Backbone:
């Protein structure tokens, strides 16, 4: 459960940092003067949906770190056979990274209000992510054909379950980004609303890219070397 | 902040309940795996539902529930973060809101562990993987599983399972604080300490989970670590109990039904908490772990105590929800039967546990170490359980009857300070406040302020003269 505890420590640090700014040491029973009361929320609050996405990403992060914890714990048993990483995954990784980059481009175009560039950027991000998904399914089929089936070995099982779960999250992102793209093509655009949507899609896409890179490192075995290194440092 | 997600969360939750209930009608009946669902036992044919629909429905129901909960939880957290009334700083929030807020954050981080465990067990059961399933011979046939780790499931399950205890307890802590303060007409003692204790308990409860696994065996160093954290978490909890008692001290205590339930909670929680200190130690836990002692501890601290709070909260807020008071006489019958009855049920179980009577057996049969008196005690427990069950019918009747015949409550029958009691209408109309949202000028516990005309000052009332304040400080 080390990975999970590490993740929770990060979340805990974020919460602690946030709480440090909340005047937790104030003495509310002494404050009833109207001057102080107006200070409740003086900054224009961040859009609720953005905070919502941050919290959601926290939940998704917990989910994946728990799976990764399970991965390492299961790996300790003797029936674990490593699994070759299909070449295709490199292509897929590149696709997902460019998709994320395209959305980043869309974000900066949206910020400057250049609708003409925003649309192709969004479409590019969308298509690349869809290609990534198709590539992942292709990788599954290749592996299956090569005899690496789900129930054969725990390494295979984890590979399918983790890529599947990640794929589902990408699919969810595709739906939302698709809706944003449709809105970008609509005749009556509310620019502020659209900018926020593009912002959130980009954030989500970067996060899922980061998750994928970690998973990829896990499958390729680099993460194990890293863990071994940590173990050696600890002992 | 997200009404749509909130509503969706409710319907998904309902779907989860229906899936769970469907287990009773499925071929093979509901799962017999108990609430911990430990593999491999839960998915083998010897367990009811293990190779039928039972376990599948159970796991799917949990997965659906967690998806639904996440939506509702996101809504709650973001609403507390972004949707507070003007002037409502975090340190002016009632402890009820603090409790539910913190518990929701915890649940958002803890439920994924159960989700992971359920998904992996579904894979084991349906697709033949071996995440949790070791090599096993069932009824003389070798199953195709091999190498899986049942302990891995236990880690995932209890990583969710222990925080879950506090996910239930923290809202109860918060509600009790508000009930005691309101019905003793006194500000809550040590408000800041109460908030900090809630947050510290939440953080600590993520590093105690393996105290449920002492019997599974572990490295002694780990056992020591988890026993220590378990004992440390008792410190902020004890601070809360002291603060409740100190709030009561020299208060103008009104023995209303909400107050009675709150008092019953404190006593019961202390009782259950103390036996928890016993069980938190490895050497004490190992012999007691599979006995009725654990049943007694668990039901005192996590069954009876929070349910007493739920009752207290219903008696407290029912007038705001419906505009009518619950009937007092029926309420007292309900209260005394439930409170005393719960003790009659669960207190003897401590004794049975020390005798060595094992838990989870529906019939003990002839055993040399169980004297006949234990059976008499079991009969007594059963009778008392039936009596307490009957008292809940009185409560349900009261809920319905008072809806039509209850005394008119008015907007603020308990003369409470918090926002919900200041709405223009009772029961509150859609949106609660009409056009103008309230502005909060003070914390939630201005009871019996010296020099104030009344013994409470609503949160929405601006400070008029500073002299009052100075007197108080
Ligand atoms: Cu526990």
Residues:
């Amino acid at each position: 459960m080390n990975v999970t505890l590490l993740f929770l420590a990060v979340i805990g640090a974020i919460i602690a940092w946030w709480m440090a700014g909340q005047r937790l040491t104030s003495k509310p029973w002494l404050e009833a003067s109207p001057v102080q009361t107006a200070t409740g929320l003086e900054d224009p609050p961040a859009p609720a949906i953005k905070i919502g996405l941050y919290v959601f990403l926290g939940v998704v992060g917990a989910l994946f770190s728990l799976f990764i914890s399970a991965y390492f714990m299961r790996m300790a048993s003797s029936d674990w056979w490593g699994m070759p990483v299909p070449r295709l995954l490199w292509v897929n990784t590149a696709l997902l990274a460019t998709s994320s980059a395209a959305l980043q481009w869309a974000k900066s175009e949206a910020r400057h209000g250049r609708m003409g560039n925003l649309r192709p950027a969004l479409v590019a991000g969308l298509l690349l992510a869809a290609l990534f998904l198709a590539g992942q399914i292709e990788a599954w089929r290749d592996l299956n054909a090569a005899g690496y089936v789900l129930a054969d070995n725990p390494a295979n099982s984890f590979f399918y379950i983790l890529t599947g779960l990640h794929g589902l999250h990408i699919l969810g992102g595709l739906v939302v980004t698709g809706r944003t793209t449709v809105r970008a093509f609509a005749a009556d655009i509310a620019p502020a609303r659209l900018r926020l949507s593009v912002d959130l899609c980009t954030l989500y896409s970067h996060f899922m890219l980061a998750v994928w890179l970690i998973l990829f490192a896990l499958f390729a075995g680099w993460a194990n070397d890293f863990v071994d290194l940590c173990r050696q440092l600890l002992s | 902040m997200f009404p749509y997600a909130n509503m969706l969360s409710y319907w998904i939750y309902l779907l989860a309940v229906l899936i769970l209930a469907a287990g009773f009608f499925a071929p093979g009946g509901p799962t017999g795996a108990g609430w911990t669902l430990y593999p491999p036992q839960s998915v083998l044919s010897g367990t009811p539902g293990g190779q039928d629909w039972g376990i599948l429905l159970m796991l799917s129901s949990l997965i659906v529930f967690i998806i639904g909960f996440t939506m509702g939880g996101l809504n709650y957290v973001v609403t507390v973060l972004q949707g507070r009334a003007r002037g409502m700083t975090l340190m002016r929030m009632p402890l009820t809101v603090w409790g539910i807020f913190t518990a929701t954050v915890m649940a958002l981080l803890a439920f994924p562990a159960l989700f992971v465990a359920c998904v992996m067990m579904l894979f084991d059961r349906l697709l033949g993987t071996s995440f949790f399933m070791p090599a096993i011979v069932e009824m003389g046939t070798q199953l195709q599983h091999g190498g899986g780790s049942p302990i891995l499931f236990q880690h995932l399950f209890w990583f969710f399972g222990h925080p879950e205890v506090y996910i239930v307890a923290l809202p109860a802590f918060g509600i009790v604080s508000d009930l005691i303060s309101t019905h003793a007409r006194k500000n809550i003692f040590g408000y800041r300490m109460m908030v900090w204790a809630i947050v510290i308990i939440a953080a600590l409860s993520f590093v105690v989970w393996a105290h449920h696994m002492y019997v599974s065996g572990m490295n002694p160093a780990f056992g020591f670590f988890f026993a220590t954290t378990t004992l440390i978490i008792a410190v902020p909890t004890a601070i809360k109990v002291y603060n409740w008692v100190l709030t009561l001290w020299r208060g103008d205590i009104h023995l209303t039904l909400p107050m009675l339930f709150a008092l019953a909670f404190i006593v019961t929680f202390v009782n259950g908490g103390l036996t928890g200190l016993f069980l938190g130690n490895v050497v004490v836990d190992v012999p007691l772990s599979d006995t009725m002692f654990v049943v007694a501890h668990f039901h005192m601290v996590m069954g009876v105590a929070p349910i007493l709070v739920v009752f207290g909260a219903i008696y407290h807020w029912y007038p705001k929800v419906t505009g009518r008071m619950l009937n007092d006489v029926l309420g007292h019958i309900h209260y005394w039967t439930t409170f005393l009855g719960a003790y009659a049920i669960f207190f003897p179980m401590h004794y049975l546990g020390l005798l060595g009577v094992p838990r989870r057996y529906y019939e003990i049969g002839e055993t040399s170490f169980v004297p006949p008196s234990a059976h008499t005690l079991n009969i007594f427990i059963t009778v008392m359980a039936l009596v307490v069950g009957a008292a809940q019918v009185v409560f349900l009747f009261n809920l319905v009857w008072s809806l039509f015949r209850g005394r008119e409550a008015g907007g603020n029958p308990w003369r409470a300070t918090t926002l919900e009691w200041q709405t223009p209408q009772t029961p509150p109309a859609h949106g609660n406040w009409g056009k103008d949202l309230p502005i909060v000028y003070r914390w939630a516990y201005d009871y019996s302020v010296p020099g104030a005309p009344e013994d409470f000052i609503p949160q929405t009332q601006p400070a008029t003269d500073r002299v009052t304040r100075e007197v108080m400080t």
